[in-house]
Design goal:
single chain, 15 helices, 17% strand, alpha+beta, 9 strands, 55% helix
Amino acid sequence: MADTKREIERKYEGPPAGGDTPLPDLTDVQGVSRVIDKGVAELDATYYDTADQRLATASLTLRRRTGGDDAGWHLKLPVSEGVRDEIRAPLSDSVPDDLTALVRSRVREAELVPVVHLLSARDVRHLVDASGTLLAEVSVDRVRAERLSGGAGSAEWTEIEVELADDGDPAFLDKVEKKLRKAGLRRSASASKLAKALEDTAPRRSTKPEKPEKSEKSGRSGKEAKGEKATKATKEATDAKSGPPESAPRTAGDHVLAYVRAQRDAIVELDPAVRRDVPDSVHRMRVATRRLRSTFRSYGKVLDRTVTGPVGDELKWLAAELGVDRDQEVLTEHLTAALDGLPSDLIMGPVQARLDTWSGARRSGSRQRLIAVLDGRRYLDLLTTLDTLVAGPPLLEAASKEPEKVIAKAVRKDFKKVADLVGQALELSPGSERDLAMHDARKKAKRTRYAAETATPALGEPAAELVKSMKSLQTLLGDHQDSVMVRETLRELAAEAQGADENAFTYGVLYGREEQRAAAVEAALPGEWEAIEGKGAV
């Protein structure tokens, strides 16, 4: 079974391998009482990746290492600069299934193969305070790297690594760094040993252009010349259509694609967190799928709906699968908080125990179902389809136009739909029809919010203000929908309690409070909408 360790560290450049240990005296670093020499460990690591280095491109590292006190398989996932989560699994001959699953959104069906072999002589020192508590581990690593695939050759270097102790204060690393910099050391240009090894052993590209094959008469055949012209024309058309991938967005298509790309990346990057059950990860992935689907629908004049429509259907399916788990989380949290807020004399019967049983049973089932979805062919095909769409977007004529016109028009269209739905809801009497109308308005408010998010880089403050307005409306209507869902759950729990001859009084009390919450939202909606409508769209 894999376990996780949060790793906070910094790497520094040292002299070439074989040089003197470039480590200054660290006993005068504030807070350090002693520097304990822990000796030298010989580490032998083989790094795995796909042939086209998909993990390295995403700053992920997967290795099998022996030696030291943490031999085994290690998968490192980036969290922020200098911070990574290290997922560990016991030694085995092949990549453990637990770790394979965590990189599946990157790897898909590609094979994981050995790419680099590293031998490191690690000279370790512990920095401890006056009580003997570990503050940080400092190591001087003399490394030899050998390329195993995708290149050839070897490289050697020395680096210094400072890793913060568990639960340590990150500010302590600044104090150590100040001392190291005074000694002439600098931050490493490479984020990891693997990154440096890949860079230093990469195949050298020839700087001399290859000479084209010449025919006896003209040096090129007519067929070759036409082929070159066609290739050039295709490239120019593609560049004009989609623009340089790294350039600042200019056209409407640029802005929409930038948003689409960001949501695609979010889905892929959140996959390991969802598998690990990281708090809020399911919600964030679900939001990314909704943002992407909403963008396809809002900007149908920019991206061809005949292409994006089927993709949107698959995103809707994924959002629904993610929602099984997320909705369960929300309901459980709300019911637990509501029960905790009741006076003890209003709690009759084993209400908390029944809630725990209900939540645990559903949570277990939903988690198993979600993992099966992420391991399934349909989900992996969706990721591949998104990659294809981003690489070759189905841009329409409006994509080449100025964003101020195309994007603003799309946002105003979505805003009008929200206005119509809110108006319909306000005309209905309280009850199931109004509940449904308010839920529909909430969904359209989300869509308008996402459309405005896409528009913000192009339209500036007006779009940003609309994002805030729609978020406020979405929150208000969301509270109402949550109340609807909670009441349905309370009816279900009350029926189960009665069937088990338990007192159902408390469920009725909670139900009444949820009715009051819904009524408060309905009373607040007219004023909320009047303020939003007064500001208008972009």
